[in-house]
Amino acid sequence: MNDLLKMLDLTPQQIIEILNLADQLKYEQKNGIPHPHLKGKTLAMIFQKSSTRTRVSFEVGMYQLGGHPLVLNANELQMGRGEPIRDTARVLSRYVDGIMIRTFAQQDVEDLAHYATVPVINGLTDFSHPCQVLADLMTIREYKGKFDGLKMCYIGDGNNMANSLIVGCLKVGMRVSVATPENYKPHPDVLAFAQNYDTFELTTSPQQAAQGADVVITDVWASMGQEKEQAERAKAFAGYQVNSEIMSLAKPDAIVQHCLPAHRGEEITDEVFEAHANEIFDEAENRLHAQKAVLVKLLK
Length: 300
Ligand code: CP
Ligand code: NVA
Hints:
Elements lengths: L11 H19 L11 E6 L5 H12 L3 E6 L11 H11 L2 E5 L3 H10 L4 E3 L7 H15 L6 E5 L4 H12 L3 E5 L8 H7 L5 E4 L2 H5 L4 E4 L11 H7 L7 H6 L5 E4 L11 H6 L1 H23 L1
Parallel strand pairs: 1-2, 1-3, 3-4, 5-6, 5-8, 6-7, 8-9
Bound molecules: phosphoric acid mono(formamide)ester and norvaline.
């Protein structure tokens, strides 16, 4: 494993190895056991979109591993004035030991990785959010003790989260049922991948997707960069809400995951969110541990 660009690139074994290391690093951190695997290493973090969790968890994670993070706002880099990504990649590679990037086009991350001589980590693109899904899988395993045969239901936009969850959950042996409106399906590459699994189902019915689910997941109706489509999307996604009716169709002990930020009253009700807040904030915390595992795997 040289980079973390998307869930499609990881083998099931690599996913499990990352999660196992994440569990160990979480244990060490909780028990005050130092783990300075990245002493003297630096990570450049490029942000072309807003972030709370990704920024803070990577920054704190590098610090806890004994390394040094640099937070770089793309607008303040020459990249923001048009310096090509392939040049940025080659320059940063001369200074730092790894690059994390949050941007729009997946191709930009792929190009960055192609030209960089240090590992590249995708901190979210329009296509993919692998760091988040590793944290989600870690949380699901913490709560359920296994993956095999569990049913993950995703309701909402066929966006970066849907794309990454479908691939990640299928790879670790979960059943996956996804409900999106007809015009907001997951990416064709992801659907092509999922077609190989008889444990995958795509529907327009949130009720059908939720039936017997062990894990219920949703995400915002309008992602970063889609703010102008907010009104049109609110119409298209009415009915694609995780609410108490949906939860009554899932298993009684189903957990809820949301990558956050959440828009209460849109994709999830306040009631369901607060009833499952423990699981959701454990998920947010696990960003830290899962990413530290990725950093150790790639940078050590
Ligand atoms: N879930 C997530 O990636 O959060 P941020 O946008 O705050 O980084
Ligand atoms: N789908 C959301 C995820 C935010 C973490 C977005 O891309 O804005």
